[in-house]
Amino acid sequence: MNELAAYIEDIFALFGPVSLRRMFGGHGIFRDGVMFGLVFDGTLYLKADAENIAAFEQQGLEQFTYTRQGKLVGLSYYRAPDHLMEDPHDAVRWAQGSFAAALRADRKRAQRTKRHPAF
Question: What is the CATH number of the domain that holds 9?
Fold first, then answer.
């Protein structure tokens, strides 16, 4: 993973410093403490939501899924386009969209927590 981690840090260098953390049997990709991507089984996935999902769907990029208790579960991450790994400027564009999606998700989660605090 060290080579792939270094490559991911390089490809997103124009976007800003990113870090990888081991999780989910793969690695989360973070910027400023916000997870906007993940690497699982050598494949890069980026965060998607209602505002940027069309870009993934237009290119036929599949959703990240895994099996939990015999059921297929999909996360809001989609495979990154292959050309992203060769074009740092394209990587910035995709990373910006996924980072924005991650920030929106964090805001929604924080609002839900405010409305329904734990006792």
Answer: 3.30.1460.30
d(CA 94, CA 1): 22
Claim: this prediction has a pTM higher than 0.70: yes
Residue span of the structural domain in which 50 resides? 2-114
For residue range 14-37, list pLDDT tens digits in order: 999 999 999 878 899 999 999 999
Question: 60 — phi, psi (to 5°)?
Answer: 70, 30
Contact 76, 41 (CB under 8 A): no
Residue 59 corresponds to which tokens in the numbers above? 């290119």
Tokens of 42: 């050598």
Are the beta carbons of 43 and 54 closer than 8 angstroms?
no
